Amino acid sequence: MDRLFVIHYNELGLKKGNRDYFENALCGNINAALQNCGTERPKRISGRILLPLSSSADVSEIKKRLARVFGIAYFGEAWASAQAVENLEVNAWGLMEGYSFKSFRIEARRGDKTFPHTSVEINQRVGAYVKERSGARVDLENAEMTCWIEIVEKYALIYLERLPGPGGLPVGTSGKVVVLLSGGIDSPVAAWKMIKRGCTPVFVHFHSFPYTNKESQEKAKRIVQLLSHYAFRAKIYLVPFAEVQRHIMVDTPLETRVILYRRYMLRLAEQIARQEKARVLVTGDSVGQVASQTIENIDVISRAVEMPTLRPLIGDDKVEIIEIARQIGTYDISIQPDQDCCSLFVPKHPETKANLAEIEKSEARLNVGDAMKAAMDASEVLLEYPSYATGAVRQL
Ligand code: ATP
Ligand code: MG
Question: Nearest 5 degrees, angle CA 360-CA 365-CA 370?
Fold first, then answer.
C-alpha cells in the first residue's frame, strides 16, 4: 500500500465561491511548511488534501509541522488501498494486527457516493473481519482503536490515528495586518491569533537604543522567527523611537507620557501599514491589564490614527494569554528581561482616564515631525524564516 497523509479542513468548505482560492492557499502553505521532509506536492481531491510520501519521509517531523498549518482541521498518516471490500478487510486488519486492543470500531466514509457499498456496509464487513481475527469487541462509543476508511476517487484511504490541526484559515487569505510587537507576553499572542485567522503579519518593534540595550530588538526578532513557523516568513521593522520620545518629554505632563508614546507608535505603524498596503493595526491590549489599557485610554490612543486598531486579546485574562504563549513557545522568550522603550522616562502613577482634548493640546505644542521622519528612515527591516528554512535571516 502507498503511504501518504490525508489532510482535512472544515471551515474552508463553507466558503463556496472562494473554495479554490482557499484550498490552493492551504496547499501552498503545506508545501512551505514541509520543506525537506520527504513529501511530494500536496494534491487536492474531493474535499481533502493528499500528501504522498517518499520512502525517506520524516513522519514525526511532518506531524509536528502540519500541526502548525492554519486551515487544517485534522490529519492522519494513511495507506492507500484498492477499493474492493476484500482489499479493505485485508488492509485494515494488516494495519491493526500489530496493536493490542480490546475494543475497536471501523469508521468508513464515502467521498464518492457512486461506490457500490454504503458506509454502514463497509463498517459491518470490515468490522466482522477484524472482530474474528482480533477477538476484540466492537464499541462505537469508546473504542480503544478506531480505523478510518475514506473512499475517494480511485483509492480507499485507511488510517488509525487522527491528529488535530490548529484550525483557523490559511495564512495569506485574510489580508495584511501591521502588528505592534513589544518584547512582552501579549503582543506575540495577539499576532498569533491574527495569523490563525489567515492574516499576513508585518511586525513593527519600537526600541530606544542606544538609551537602552539591544535586548528588546533581539527578543522581537526571536519572537518573529518563532511566529514564522506559523506564517512561513515574516517581515519585521525595527524602529528607533528614542528621538520621538525625547521630543514628547520636552513639554508634556509626566502622567500622560505613555499615552503619547502609544499614539506616536500607532502613527508610525500606520505609515508603515500604508507603505505595506496593510489595512489595520494590531496590538496586544487587554482591558484594564495595565494603566494604559483602560477603556478611556484605549479610546484616546485609538484616535491618533485613521486605521482601525484591532485588539484580539481585549477580553482575555492574563492567565489565558499566558497559556497560549506557552503553547506556541513565545512565553520563554517574552519573560527574558529587557529594557522596554516605554519604561524609560515614565511616572509611577500614569493617567488612567485620558482626556482627548488635553492630549491633543499637548501634541499641538510638540514638534515631532522631523523626528518621526528620521525614525522611519532609520528603521531596519528584516525577513525572518522558520528554523528549517534555508537562508534563515535575510537583510532586505
Ligand atoms: P505586551 O505584553 O505585548 O508588551 P503589555 O501588557 O506589556 O503588552 P503595554 O506595554 O502597555 O502592555 O503595550 C500595549 C501594546 O502596545 C502591546 O501589546 C504592543 O502591541 C504595543 N507596544 C508596546 N510597546 C511596544 C514596542 N516597544 N514596540 C511595538 N509595540 C509596542
Ligand atoms: Mg509590554
Answer: 105
Identify the residue whose C-alpha is closest to ligand 1 atom 4: 184
Quick one: 322 and 238 in the same domain? yes
Domain boundary among 142, 164, 186: 164
For residue 290 and ligand 1, the question of a CB distance below 6 A is answered with yes
Residues belonging to the chain: 396
Predicted structure pTM score:
0.94
Yes or no: say if 178 and 276 are a contact pair by the CB < 8 Å rule.
yes
Domain that holds residue 56: 2-164
**Which of 177, 181, 185, 187 should be mutated for ligand 1, with most atoms under 8 A from CB?**
187
pLDDT digits (tens, 9 = 90+) for 135-169: 999 999 999 999 999 999 888 999 999 999 999 99
Closest Cα to atom 12 of ligand 1: 285
Q: Are residues 59 and 185 in the same domain?
A: no
Testing ligand 1's pocket by substitution, the residue of 177, 178, 179, 180 carrying the most ligand atoms inside 8 A of its CB is 180
Nearest alpha-carbon partner for 78 in 169, 2, 166, 171? 2
Average pLDDT, integer, range 276-294:
91
| Banded model confidence at residue 92, pLDDT cuts 50, 70, 90 | very high
